[in-house]
C-alpha cells in the first residue's frame, strides 16, 4: 500500500510540472542537426523542454493524421505546404493568421500557407528548381530557351554519352516549369483541372524534341543525373537545393534561374515548395507551441537552417546575414525562388500527378503524340477522380449481414446433430477457454477485425476524411469498368488478365527452373555441390526490393547491363518499359530470378526423400531416365510440390514489390497487377480507400476460388 | 564334385558347371574410391540354378549382384549372358528382375500398377498385362490386395508384391538382395518355403544374396561363400558344410560355429595344448583342427576337459560352452544330463570327425568321411 501512495504522489507532482513540447520532423543529416541545435537554443532561452522525434518521411503524413486526433501526436510538426489543405480538413493544424508577421518572410512563402483565407504555420524554408551549370563546360549560362538549345547542340555528343542536359524528365514535378513557361495553366478560375491545352502540347513537344535530338538521355533517374553531372557527362542539370549535397567537390558549377521560353517570353516557372512549422490543433500548450514554431522560423534558427542545415530560408532578414550573402548557393536560390510559384495546396492538385505522369511518360516513350497527350491526361484524370457514388441505405446490407451470420450459426448448430448441453459435453470448458483465449484474441485482433473492417470499407466512399455509405457501387463500378473501356489498363478485367498471366508464367518458370536445378544439385557426387547450392539460394536471401532495384537498373535502355549485353551480340538496345510485352517480360525475369530458389529448395528436399532404390527398381523394370522422371519423380514430388505451387501462386499473384519497383506499371499502368492497382487507388489516387478495399475483396475472392480449385486438383488424399 | 572342394579359394570351380549356357562373370573387380569391394571374382551360373551368395556384411556379395543387374559399373572384368558380353548394357536391356532388400515398391502406385509397370514400359498389349498380373497375383495370393497401395500392406505382403513385380516380367534371371531380412522369423520361414516352391514352379535362374546361412543351406542348389571381396568356395550346400575349403567357410556355415584348435602332428596323434587326438589324413607338422559342436559330446571321459562357462538347453539336447586349456570349445550334451555352469566336464569326439586345415586356415588337408 505504501508504495502505491508514493507512486501516486510522484505522478501528481510530475503532472504539475510542465510537459515537454513534442516536435516531429522528417529531417536527416545536416537538416536534422540544424533543428537539434535550434531547439537547444530555444530551450536555453525560454526554459521550455522540447522532445524531438524524427519520423520516416513515407509514414509521416499518415502518422500525423492518425495520431493528432487521438491526442497522441506532436505539439509542433514540420511539413511541406502541399498537404496543408488536407491537414486543414482533418482539423489537425491550428491557424496562425493573427500571429504571423507577413513582412518578415518572402510573400510567396506566406501565400503558400494560406487555406480559405486563413494562415497555417510559420514558413521555414523553400524548395524549388534551378539550372545547375557545369562552368567548365558552359561559360555563359543560357537565359532563354534559344540560347539553351544552342548550348545543348554545342555540348552534346551522344556517341560519347555526353549530354547537354540531364534531369528526371519523366517526373511531372520537373516538367511543370515547361508547362507554365509555354503559357499553360493546370487549373481554370473555378479550380478545375484543364490539362488538354495548346500550351501543354507545346511543353510536351519541346521536351520530346530535347530527347529526340539526343540532348538528354532517356529514362533518367535521380541517381543517373548525379553520376552524369559528377562525371562531366551532363553540362547542365535541372534540380533543387538537395542536389548540392550530391555534387562532388571537384565539379565547378553555378546555379542560375531556369531560362525564359523564347517563343512566349515567359520564364520556365518552377514550383515552390514551402516547409513550415505547423502547430497541432490539439496541443495542450498552445502558447509555448506557437512560440517554438515562430522561433524556428526566424533569427538564430534561420542561421542554423543555412549552416549546417543547407536549406534556403524563407525569412527575408536571413539574407542580410554575412554568412548567407557569402553562400553562393543560397543567394542563387533566393533569385530562383522569386520566380517560382507555390505549388497549389488544393486537393485537385493531388489528383493531377498520376494523369500527368502518364501523359508525360507516354510522350517521352513515343507512344503518345505531344498534342494528344493532354487529352489522354484529362481522360485519365476523370477516370481516376470518380464521381462520388450516390449514397445508399445501409439498412438492407446490415440485415443481409445479420441474416447471414444467423444462418451460419443455425447451420453450424444443426450440423452438430442433437444438441447436448455444452457444459455437459465439455465439463472443463472454462479451463479450455482460458487456454485458447490468448490465441483467439491474437487472431481476432490481427486477422478477424482487420478483415471485417476491410470488407466493410469496400461499401464506403472516402473523400478527404469523409466516409459515405454507397452500398455495392464500388463493386459495380469496378466490375463494369465504369469510365473506361474494358481493354484499358485501368479496367479490372484487363488487370485481372494481366495478373493471371503474370502468375501462371512465373510459377511455371519458377517450378521448372527450380526443379531442373534441384535435379542437377541432387547428385551427391557433384563437386562443389554446397557452393552451388549457396550461390543459387542467394537471390532468395537478398531482400526482394533490392533485387528489384538492381534489375530495374539493369533494364535501363542506355546504361543497363542487359542492353549492354544485347549490344555485344549486335542487337539493338531495347526500351524495356515502353512496350507491354518487354515491360511484362522485365517483371517476369526479375521475379523468376527471385522465385526459383524457393522451388529449388523445396524440390531438392523432396527429391532427396525419394529412395534411390525406386529408381534402380524402375531401371530394372525397363524405365528410361525420362520415364523415371515422369512416372517416379513427378508423382512423388507432387505431395511436396503442390502446396508450394499453391503458395507460390498466391505470393506471385500479390507480388507488389516487383511490379511497383521494376516496371512501376509502365507503360501506362498496363503491367500493373490487381494488388498494385489497389495500392494506387488507395494511396496515389486521392485516397479512394473504399474503392481500393473493394479491389482487395475481389482479390480475396479470386484467390479463394483458386485455392478451392487447387484443392480439388490435388486429389482426394489432400482434401 | 570332389575336385571342386580342393580348388584353392578365390578360383572358379569351373569343373562343377552343369551347363554351358547361363551367366558368367569373369575377373570382376570393383572399388569405391580407394576401397576395393570386389577383388576379382569369376563365377558361372547354369540356367535353372538357384545360386545363393552368402557372406558377412561388406564381403561384396550385394555389389556383385548389382553388377549382374547392371546397376553398378565394374572397374574391370566381364559379365557374359549366354556368351554375350553384357558388361555395359543398361539394366533395362538385360532381361533381369530384381527383388530389393527394401522391396522398392512404387509408393504412389497400387499393387496392380506396381505389377503392371514393367510390362507397360515394354508395351505389352493390355490384355496380356492383365493376364500376367492376374496370374502372378494368384500365384502369390495377392488378388485381394491389388487395389491397395504399398503403405497399406504388411511386410510379408510387400515382399510378395516385390516378387510379383519380377515374376510378371518373366525374366531369364531373378536377382534377390536379402529379400527376407526385413521379415520376422515366422514369416521368414514361410517365405523361404514359397521361394523354393517358386523356383521349382518357374524353373528360372535365381541368384540370391543373404548373410543368413540357414537361407543359404535351405534354398540353394549351389552356395557361393564370399569374404572380403573374394569367392571363398562354391558348391552344393552340404558339400560346403562337410568339406569346407578353408576355416572361414568352415566356421561361417553351421551353427554353433565349428571349434578350431591349433595342434601339431606327432606320429599318429595331433597334440594341442592340453589335449591329444588320434590323427587322420596325411598332414604333417603344424595344423589347425576343426571339430563341429554336433560331433563333440560332454561325457565322463575324453581328450578335452574344462569348466562350463555357459549352457544352452534346447530340450532334447543342448550345447555347453567349455573353457579348455586349448581355448573355448562348444560341445553337445544329452538333454537329460545335469550339465551346469561352473561344473568341470570332459568332452569327447563322436568318431571320425576331424577337419584338418593348414595352420593359417587357408587350406583344407583332410575332411572326415561324410555321412552321405
Describe this structure in words.
The complex is a heterodimer of chains A (719) and B (372). Chain A has 719 residues and is of the alpha/beta class. Chain A folds into four domains: 20-126 and 273-342, 3-Layer(aba) Sandwich (D-Maltodextrin-Binding Protein, domain 2); 130-269 and 347-384, Periplasmic binding protein-like II (D-Maltodextrin-Binding Protein, domain 2, 3-Layer(aba) Sandwich), CATH 3.40.190.10; 394-427; 500-677, Orthogonal Bundle (MetI-like fold), CATH 1.10.3720.10. In chain A, the strands form four sheets. In chain A, strands 1, 2, 3, 6, 11, 12 and 13 form a seven-stranded mixed sheet that branches. In chain A, strand 4 (114-115) and strand 5 (118-119) form a beta hairpin. In chain A, helix 14 (347-364) packs antiparallel against helix 15 (370-384), helix 21 (529-541) packs across helix 24 (580-608) and helix 24 crosses helix 26 (625-653). The longest helix of chain A has 31 residues, at 492-522. The radius of gyration of chain A is 31 Å and the shape is globular. The two termini of chain A are 60 Å apart. The model of chain A has no long low-confidence stretch (mean pLDDT 86). In chain B, helix 3 (111-121) runs parallel beside helix 5 (155-167). The model of chain B is unreliable at 1-20 (pLDDT under 50). Chain B is built from nine helices and 21 strands. In chain B, a hairpin with a 2-residue loop joins strand 17 and strand 18 (327-334). With 372 residues, chain B is of the alpha+beta class. Chain B has two domains: 2-95 and 171-248, P-loop containing nucleotide triphosphate hydrolases (Rossmann fold, 3-Layer(aba) Sandwich), CATH 3.40.50; 257-366, Nucleic acid-binding proteins (OB fold (Dihydrolipoamide Acetyltransferase, E2P), Beta Barrel). Chain B has helices at residues 2-6, 61-69, 111-121, 126-139, 155-167, 185-202, 213-219, 237-242, 247-252, and strands at 22-32, 35-46, 50-54, 76-81, 84-85, 96-99, 173-177, 205-210, 222-227, 230-235, 259-266, 269-272, 275-278, 286-291, 296-299, 304-313, 317-324, 327-334, 344-349, 355-357, 364-366. Chain B is elongated. Chain B has a six-stranded mixed sheet with strand order 6-7-8-3-9-10, with helices on both faces. At the A-B interface, helix 25 and helix 26 of A face strand 6 and helix 3 of B.
Amino acid at each position: 500500500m505504501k508504495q502505491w501512495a508514493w507512486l501516486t504522489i510522484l505522478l501528481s507532482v510530475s503532472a504539475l510540472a510542465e510537459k515537454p513540447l513534442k516536435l516531429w520532423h522528417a529531417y536527416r543529416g545536416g537538416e536534422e542537426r540544424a533543428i537539434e541545435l535550434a531547439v537547444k537554443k530555444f530551450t536555453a532561452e525560454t526554459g521550455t523542454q522540447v522532445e524531438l522525434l524524427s519520423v520516416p518521411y513515407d509514414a509521416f503524413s499518415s502518422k500525423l493524421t492518425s495520431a493528432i486526433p487521438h491526442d497522441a501526436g506532436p505539439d509542433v510538426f514540420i511539413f511541406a505546404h502541399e498537404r496543408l489543405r488536407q491537414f486543414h480538413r482533418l482539423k489537425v493544424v491550428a491557424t496562425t493568421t493573427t500571429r504571423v508577421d507577413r513582412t518578415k518572410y518572402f510573400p510567396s512563402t506566406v501565400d503558400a500557407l494560406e487555406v480559405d483565407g486563413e494562415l497555417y504555420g510559420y514558413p521555414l524554408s523553400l524548395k524549388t528548381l534551378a539550372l545547375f551549370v557545369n562552368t567548365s563546360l558552359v561559360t555563359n549560362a543560357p537565359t532563354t530557351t534559344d540560347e539553351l538549345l544552342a548550348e545543348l547542340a554545342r555540348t552534346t555528343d551522344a556517341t560519347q554519352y555526353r549530354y547537354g542536359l540531364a534531369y528526371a524528365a519523366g517526373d511531372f514535378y520537373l516538367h511543370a516549369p515547361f508547362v507554365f513557361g509555354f503559357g499553360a495553366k493546370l487549373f481554370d478560375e473555378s479550380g478545375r483541372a484543364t490539362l488538354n491545352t495548346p500550351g501543354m502540347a507545346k511543353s510536351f513537344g519541346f521536351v520530346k524534341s530535347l530527347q529526340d535530338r539526343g540532348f538528354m538521355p532517356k529514362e533518367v533517374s535521380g541517381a543517373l543525373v548525379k553520376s552524369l553531372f559528377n562525371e562531366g557527362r551532363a553540362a547542365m542539370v535541372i534540380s533543387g537545393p538537395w542536389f548540392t549535397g550530391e555534387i562532388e567537390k571537384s565539379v565547378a558549377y553555378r546555379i542560375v534561374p531556369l531560362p525564359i521560353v523564347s517563343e512566349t517570353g515567359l520564364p520556365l516557372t518552377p514550383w515552390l515548395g514551402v516547409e513550415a512549422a505547423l502547430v497541432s490543433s490539439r496541443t495542450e500548450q498552445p502558447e509555448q507551441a506557437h512560440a517554438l514554431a515562430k522561433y524556428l522560423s526566424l533569427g538564430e534558427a534561420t542561421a542554423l537552417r543555412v549552416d549546417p542545415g543547407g536549406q534556403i530560408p524563407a525569412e527575408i532578414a536571413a539574407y542580410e546575414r554575412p554568412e548567407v550573402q557569402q553562400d553562393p548557393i543560397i543567394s542563387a536560390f533566393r533569385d530562383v525562388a522569386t520566380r517560382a510559384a507555390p505549388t497549389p495546396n488544393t486537393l485537385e492538385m493531388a489528383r493531377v500527378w498520376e494523369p500527368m505522369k502518364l501523359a508525360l511518360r507516354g510522350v517521352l516513350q513515343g507512344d503518345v503524340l505531344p498534342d494528344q497527350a493532354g487529352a489522354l491526361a484529362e481522360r485519365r484524370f476523370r477516370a481516376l477522380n470518380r464521381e462520388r457514388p450516390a449514397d445508399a441505405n445501409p439498412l438492407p446490407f446490415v440485415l443481409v449481414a445479420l441474416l447471414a451470420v444467423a444462418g451460419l450459426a443455425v447451420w453450424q448448430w444443426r450440423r452438430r446433430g442433437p444438441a447436448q448441453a455444452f457444459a455437459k459435453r465439455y465439463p472443463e470448458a472454462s479451463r479450455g477457454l482460458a487456454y485458447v483465449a490468448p490465441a483467439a484474441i491474437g487472431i481476432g485482433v490481427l486477422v478477424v477485425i482487420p478483415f471485417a473492417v476491410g470488407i466493410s470499407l469496400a461499401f464506403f466512399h472516402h473523400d478527404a476524411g469523409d466516409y459515405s455509405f454507397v452500398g455495392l457501387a464500388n463493386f459495380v463500378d469496378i466490375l463494369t469498368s465504369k469510365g473506361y473501356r474494358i481493354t484499358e489498363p485501368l479496367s479490372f478485367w484487363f488487370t485481372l488478365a494481366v495478373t493471371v498471366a503474370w502468375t501462371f508464367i512465373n510459377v511455371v518458370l519458377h517450378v521448372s527452373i527450380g526443379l531442373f536445378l534441384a535435379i542437377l544439385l541432387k547428385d551427391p557426387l557433384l563437386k562443389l555441390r554446397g557452393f552451388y547450392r549457396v550461390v543459387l539460394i542467394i537471390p532468395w536471401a537478398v531482400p526482394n526490393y533490392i533485387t528489384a532495384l538492381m534489375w530495374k537498373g539493369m533494364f535501363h535502355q542506355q546504361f543497363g547491363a542487359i542492353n549492354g549485353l544485347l549490344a555485344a551480340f549486335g542487337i539493338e538496345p531495347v526500351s524495356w518499359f515502353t512496350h507491354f510485352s518487354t515491360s511484362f517480360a522485365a517483371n517476369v525475369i526479375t521475379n523468376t530470378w527471385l522465385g526459383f530458389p524457393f522451388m529449388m529448395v523445396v524440390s531438392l528436399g523432396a527429391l532427396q526423400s525419394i529412395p534411390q532404390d525406386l529408381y534402380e527398381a524402375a531401371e530394372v523394370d525397363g524405365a528410361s531416365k525420362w520415364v523415371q522422371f515422369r512416372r517416379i519423380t513427378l508423382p512423388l514430388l507432387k505431395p511436396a510440390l503442390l502446396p508450394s505451387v499453391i503458395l507460390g501462386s498466391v505470393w506471385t499473384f500479390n507480388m507488389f514489390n516487383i511490379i511497383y519497383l521494376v516496371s512501376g506499371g509502365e507503360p501506362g499502368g498496363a503491367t500493373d497487377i490487381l494488388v498494385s492497382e489497389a495500392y494506387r487507388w488507395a494511396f496515389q489516387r486521392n485516397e479512394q480507400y473504399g474503392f481500393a478495399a473493394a479491389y482487395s475483396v475481389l482479390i480475396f475472392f479470386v484467390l479463394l476460388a483458386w485455392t478451392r480449385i487447387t484443392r480439388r486438383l490435388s486429389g482426394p488424399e489432400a482434401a | 564334385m570332389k575336385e571342386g572342394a580342393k580348388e584353392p579359394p578365390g578360383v572358379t570351380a569351373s569343373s562343377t558347371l552343369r551347363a554351358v549356357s547361363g551367366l558368367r562373370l569373369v575377373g570382376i573387380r570393383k572399388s569405391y574410391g580407394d576401397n576395393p569391394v570386389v577383388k576379382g571374382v569369376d563365377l558361372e551360373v547354369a540356367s535353372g540354378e538357384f545360386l545363393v551368395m552368402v557372406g558377412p556384411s561388406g564381403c561384396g556379395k550385394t555389389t556383385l549382384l548389382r553388377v549382374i543387374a547392371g546397376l553398378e559399373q565394374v572397374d574391370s572384368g566381364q559379365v557374359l549372358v549366354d556368351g554375350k558380353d553384357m558388361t555395359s548394357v543398361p539394366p533395362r536391356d538385360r532381361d533381369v528382375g530384381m527383388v530389393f532388400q527394401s522391396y522398392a515398391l512404387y509408393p504412389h502406385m497400387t499393387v496392380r500398377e506396381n505389377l503392371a509397370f514393367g510390362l507397360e514400359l515394354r508395351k505389352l498389349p493390355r490384355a496380356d498385362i492383365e493376364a500376367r498380373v492376374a496370374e502372378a497375383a494368384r500365384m502369390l495370393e495377392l488378388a485381394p490386395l491389388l487395389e491397395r497401395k504399398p503403405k497399406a500392406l504388411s511386410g510379408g505382403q510387400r515382399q510378395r508384391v516385390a516378387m510379383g513385380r519380377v515374376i510378371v516380367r518373366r525374366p531369364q534371371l531373378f536377382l534377390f538382395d536379402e529379400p527376407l531380412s526385413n521379415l520376422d522369423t515366422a514369416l521368414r520361414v514361410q517365405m523361404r518355403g514359397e521361394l523354393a516352391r517358386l523356383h521349382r514352379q518357374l524353373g528360372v535362374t535365381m541368384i540370391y544374396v543373404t548373410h543368413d546361412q540357414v537361407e543359404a543351406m535351405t534354398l540353394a542348389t549351389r552356395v557361393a561363400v564370399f569374404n572380403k571381396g573374394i569367392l571363398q568356395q562354391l558348391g552344393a550346400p552340404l558339400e560346403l558344410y562337410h568339406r569346407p575349403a578353408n576355416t572361414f567357410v568352415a566356421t561361417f556355415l553351421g551353427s554353433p560355429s565349428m571349434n578350431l584348435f591349433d595342434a601339431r602332428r606327432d606320429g599318429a596323434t595331433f597334440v594341442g595344448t592340453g589335449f591329444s587326438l588320434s590323427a587322420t589324413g596325411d598332414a604333417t607338422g603344424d595344423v589347425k583342427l576343426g571339430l563341429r559342436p554336433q560331433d563333440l559330446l560332454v561325457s565322463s571321459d575324453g581328450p578335452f576337459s574344462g569348466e562350463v562357462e555357459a549352457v544352452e538347453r534346447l530340450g532334447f539336447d543342448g550345447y555347453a560352452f567349455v573353457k579348455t586349456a586349448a581355448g573355448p570349445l562348444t560341445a553337445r550334451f544329452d538333454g537329460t544330463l545335469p550339465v551346469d555352469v561352473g561344473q568341470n566336464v570332459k568332452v569327447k569326439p563322436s568318431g571320425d570327425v576331424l577337419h584338418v586345415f593348414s595352420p593359417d586356415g587357408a587350406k583344407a588337408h583332410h575332411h572326415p568321411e561324410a555321412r552321405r
